[in-house]
Structures are given as structure tokens and as C-alpha cells.
Amino acid sequence: MPMFQKHFTLEEARSRIPEIRAQFARIHELYEQTERLRADFLTVQKRIQQNGHAPKVSGFEEHVEKLNALIKEVIDTGIEIKDVVRGLIDFPAWHNGNEVFLCFELSDMDILFWHKIEEGYVGRIPIRDGEFVL
Which helix (H) or strand (E) holds 43? Predict the structure, then answer.
């Protein structure tokens, strides 16, 4: 029984790369904004615990909600996000009757690797001329 509902061919995954890059540009922008607001949010939360004053609206929660929505948008397409900061994602695919991942990182120009699901990033194997290399 398959682990994933959606599987991508190499061509389908490659066609998604421009959209993925745009989505991750938005995710990274919002992530950076959220990180800048985090310190203020934590300071405010500490003060609230100490003196019981009403919380200051920092925008942190709103940014976190937007960030989660953007990440969910990617995941809902069947793509696995492995590292948000690096932009490391896996596309479930089939190879010789086995479920595998087509591995992509934003720093890559193309989908250059695949790996068995249980082996992860360290088990990446090159894709050459559109073919899975063993």
C-alpha cells in the first residue's frame, strides 16, 4: 500500500520548480519577519506573566499564522518539506515499483537527486539525463 496519495513524475516535479521558488521566496520573507518579531513577543509574554497587563500586539502571532498557511499550501500539493530554511523538499515518486523521493533544494538549478524514503538526504543518488542512476 502506498505511503503517499500523490506521486510526481520527474517532468511534473520539474514543472513545479518555478512555483516552488516563488512560494519559498514568500515563506522566507515571512519567516525572517517572524524571527524579528519573536524576541519582542517573548519579552511581552514574560512581562505579562510578571504583572498581569494586557498583551501588546506584536504581530508575531499573525505572521506565524500566515507562515503556517503558506507551508500548508505547499504540503497540500503532495510535496514533503524537509527543511524550510534551506528550501529542501521531496516529491514522492515511483521508481521500479518502489516509492522514492525526488530531492530538490532551492540552491539546486534542477532536480538532480533522488533517494529511497528510508535513506533520506544522505542517501541521495544522482539523476542523469532524466534517468534514475543506481
Answer: helix 10-51
